Amino acid sequence: MKRKGILIVVSGFSGTGKGTLMKQLVQSYDNYALSVSMTTRSPRPGEEEGKEYFFVSREEFVSQIKNDGLIEYASYCEHYYGTPRKYVEAELEAGRDVILEIEIQGALKVREKYPTALLLFVMPPNAAELRKRLEKRGTESPDIIRMRLERALEEAKGIEKYDFIVINDKLEECVRNMHSLIQAAHETPERNEELIDNIRKELKNICV
Amino acid sequence: MKRKGILIVVSGFSGTGKGTLMKQLVQSYDNYALSVSMTTRSPRPGEEEGKEYFFVSREEFVSQIKNDGLIEYASYCEHYYGTPRKYVEAELEAGRDVILEIEIQGALKVREKYPTALLLFVMPPNAAELRKRLEKRGTESPDIIRMRLERALEEAKGIEKYDFIVINDKLEECVRNMHSLIQAAHETPERNEELIDNIRKELKNICV
Hints:
homodimer, alpha/beta, 4-stranded mixed β-sheet, 9 strands, globular
């Protein structure tokens, strides 16, 4: 019996190192695929087509929406961002676990369409640590840091919607932990319908 | 923050080696406690008080029921069997994960009282393997084996009520797997209310 892939949605406060975590996870274990988003914004210096994003025109993006080519999409600062369906479904079908990074509204939309999607929420060990990390970046003004902390407070309201929380304290440990959580998710009854059906049929045949 | 223990209910077809699995789990890792049931039946040769069971009189058992001293109980072949509450709650409070082995009706009763209980269903890799294991025991007549298979078919109807299925193919691997599932269960939002509340409060304080 072929094991089908799980769609994994990663959310969490800005500054918790989601991106690094996900990259490290994909590098450390086989069987993961990172979903690449589509956007209408222009590439920034160093960004490559198909790596950070698929860069498309507004017309192309709207046509993708119309043709149900996106699992979810949202607009942010006058640009569209979305998750192309084709790549995700091909990878899931091939048995790979596909990872997306999106915020809570997108995460809940994904779960509506893919009821067996796994929702992970990445958190720092505590709020002081979050502020420290945001300040350490050194690239943002106190106003921006404050805005991000306020946003974190807002996002924290949705934590109960997630399947697991992932505390990002030490990177290596956190990546191992994340992998274990995903492995565990493969063992739920709703992700093993075929296996359960098979054993029921077999038992029926034996008992007849 | 002290991590609270999880109440773990293990069910599964007879002949899948639940008992061995649980014993091995408790031996292989710290932090587990095996719940010992109370029963009104007489000890069999070799059975020790407080090890296999707590052996009590019918009067004592009924008094336990009346005083809400049991998490769940059932009668089987004119004898009572139940799970003493005191031991379980003391162990959970001390941060240990407590394991019970009971069938589905009991498992669902436990979940009603302990909404964060973790329900594990142990299965053989397939039904043929289950029959083989039952036959291999060599202690049971074909009629009994047939009865157990029919019972398995009945129990299989409830698999979707469980949080995880545990395939018992190779013992060592299965014990490791079971441990991982339990570790994963510790990372759900509903089992980390205090941690989540704390970070929300901290964020609120920072943002004020």
